[in-house]
Amino acid sequence: MAHVESAHLVELALSNATPTDADAEALRHIEHCTHCRDELAMLTRLVTAARTAETVDLPTPPPEDVWLRITQEVSRETGTPPPPHHPWHDDEPG
Ligand SMILES: [Zn+2]
Asked: Per the record, which residues fall in region Disordered (predicted)?
């Protein structure tokens, strides 16, 4: 079985949708796939960071479109503006 798509993992990390058959299938795959489990864990941390505006400590930043997808969804569900930047870029000069 193919790995779960990143976009689908983002949906699962946000976990604000009613589970579908596709979700159940994806979760079954994730149970047995370290790669997808690690990615879902990373995305869950990003969702938490977006919801709490806390700095996340990741070895590598996620793709910007993934971060934007998460912040847009969190912004929509909380009615607050999304974080203005990647929270792990706070070591920039200035
Ligand atoms: Zn996988």
From this structure: 72-94
- pLDDT, mean over the chain: 83
How far away, in angstroms, is 23 Cα from ligand 1 center?
13
Residue 35: in which H helix or E strand, if any?
A: helix 34-52
> How many structural domains comprise the chain?
1
CA of 43 to the centre of ligand 1 (A): 14
Domain range for 46? 6-57
Highest-pLDDT range among 11-15, 58-62, 77-81, 85-89: 11-15
| Residue 92 in domain | no
